[in-house]
Amino acid sequence: MFNISMIGTGYVGLVSGTCLAEIGHHVTCVDNQTQKIQMLKKGKIPIYEPGLEDLIHKNMKAKRLSFSTSISESISTADFVFIAVGTPPRSDGSADLSYVENVAREIATHLKKYIVIVEKSTVPVETCEWIKKTILRYHKGNTPFDVVSNPEFLREGSAVNDFLRPDRIIVGAESQKARELMQKLYGPLKSPMVFTDPKSSELIKHASNSFLATKISYINAVARLCEKVGANVEEVAEGMGFDKRIARSFLNAGCGFGGFCFPKDLEAFLWISKKLGEDFHLLESVKKINEEQKIHFVHKIEQALWILQGKTIGLLGLAFKPNTDDMRLAPSIDIIHMLQERGARIQVYDPIAMPQAKKVLKNIKYCKSLYEVTKDADCLALVTDWDEFKEMDLKRVKSLMKHPTIVDGRNIFNLDRMKKLGFSYHSIGRKSV
Ligand code: UGA
After folding, report:
1. Homologous superfamily, domain 209-426
2. Which residues, at least 6 apart from 425, have a Cβ–Cβ distance to it below 8 Å?
3. Residue 259's closest CA among 51, 46, 11?
4. Could you check whether 3-196 and 209-426 share the same CATH topology?
5. Domains of the chain: which residue ranges?
6. Of 196, 227, 411, 429, which alpha carbon lies 20 to 30 A from 139's?
7. What are the beta bridge partners of residue 82?
């Protein structure tokens, strides 16, 4: 079992560090935000992620997981140093890598014995090379080290499971020694490992996220055609998905993708392609379709209600997807702004994301329950497919609403059922009933 220093206790660092402790390693999670580390030491976690809190408590108790603000201290005993700091987007779409550079310089200063430096943050291709150059520039001595790319494929809401049961683990390493060590590190997971050079590994992350975003925009474009001809996008996706080469997942039409990964990574990949002299036109379209999809959703609400001025819209779901409180680049934000521009009154309910939403969404009424948001609404607009919404008591909802109208941006209800219940029901890529 190894000693690991995990630098950065954001989403990726905290989940990865905890799960590496869970499989038996000794992990120190490091962050320069003293307050955050103090909170974590008390077992309080700053993000909402199912299963994570229990796992943190369990591994702290077993003394495999600890927290610190000192990079130098944690590096001194580490076999692996993971870089999991933020790489926020700049206004031109490129990633700001200054945190990564700072950590590389710190590592260079404190390097005393061979370690494997693992790049875990989502970074542009060639970052491993820059980390290596930076360490060589700032390190005084000839201590050997390796820099390895090991992109994460965690989905918010199921990150713990994704880490412990991954489809594959990608390792981009130059030396055989680093490959063997990475194999031992992840050995307990017994998952397929793919070894590449660092640049290919970095590109696998770009290409995978952009491909998944492409699948979503593709089916959203198909959904709009389905609406025009009266077909059903769910059936189209089902029929396509049975072909193993296509596969059914990520073919769910909706009111657009969001979150801090797809939109940001698309921008970053586009930026890199342009920088390298290649125009990746396809990705421009993926982005455009996604923007249009949110507008399309608002148009659907207008089609259902005509004039929105003075009407009350009950918005169900704020987070960019279920099982997270993450509001970053959530479609709900743009949708609410468009509805407000048209003079609609907005009342919202989300099982988890309302405290986060309050920081970014003003002039809306936050309701305590699904049924409160329904009360006196001219229309319900469903943006996030939480299980709680799938299980709602539709008869009760109908009795509470001014007019039983639902515009469903995630296609969670069966058309026949909605028709029988007497709703005016509008979804994506399906007939309105
Ligand atoms: C995504 C990838 O799925 C992860 O593999 C990757 O590690 C992560 O980005 C990252 O780069 O860190 P995440 O953003 O957490 O994960 O969420 P997804 O489950 O992929 O959903 C993203 C968005 O797409 C959501 O808004 C969701 O509602 C939307 N979506 C997803 C659809 O509209 N249709 C689908 O069929 C699937």
Report:
1. NAD(P)-binding Rossmann-like Domain (3.40.50.720)
2. 405, 406, 408, 413, 415, 418, 419, 432, 433
3. 11
4. yes
5. 3-196, 209-426
6. 196
7. 6, 118
Q: How far does residue 325's CA lie from ligand 1's centre (Å)?
A: 14
Q: Which CATH architecture has domain 3-196?
A: 3-Layer(aba) Sandwich (3.40)
Q: Does 234 sit in the ligand 1 pocket, CB within 6 Å? A: no
The alpha carbon of 262 and the centre of ligand 1 are apart by a number of angstroms equal to: 7
Please give the Cα distance from 82 to 74 (Å, whole number).
11
For 308-361, strand residue ranges (E) read 312-316, 345-349
Q: Are strands 169-172 and 345-349 parallel, antiparallel or unpaired?
A: unpaired
Q: Which amino acid is at 200?
A: S
Distance between CA atoms of residues 148 and 201, nearest Å: 9
CB of 320 closer than 6 A to ligand 1? yes
Give residue-wise pLDDT tens across range 330-368: 999 999 999 999 999 999 999 999 999 999 999 999 999
Annotated catalytic residue within 19, 29, 261, 379: 261
Run of H or E residues at 350: none
Say if residue 377's pLDDT is above 90: yes
